[in-house]
Amino acid sequence: MLSCVMQCSRMSNFRLLLAEAALKGVAEARARIFGHVLNPTGLPSGNKILRKKLIGEKVAAWYPYDIKRDDPLVMAREEKARLSKLEMQKRRGKAAPKKGQGRRALKRNK
Predict the structure, then answer these.
(1) Cα 8 vs. chain centroid, distance in angstroms?
(2) pTM here?
């Protein structure tokens, strides 16, 4: 009687091991087929974040193409406009002072 019980318990252990191995094999095959990452421990990995699409291209698509970067004529025209505006301000006395001749520098000299 005792040997039969031990033999039955060995058989059930063997069946459990066999079932566990089969389930593990099925899970590995399913992960390989469908491109999932197998995580038997259940610990957090970074795969959820790594699986997402990169968003840089999408954000860049929101903004229109900037012609100023590539066209030197546009930049030259803007620089010319800036210099003419600065010259008009200087004639009226509203331009920024030269470096070292501002209000704080004049206070220090007194």
Answers:
(1) 57
(2) 0.37
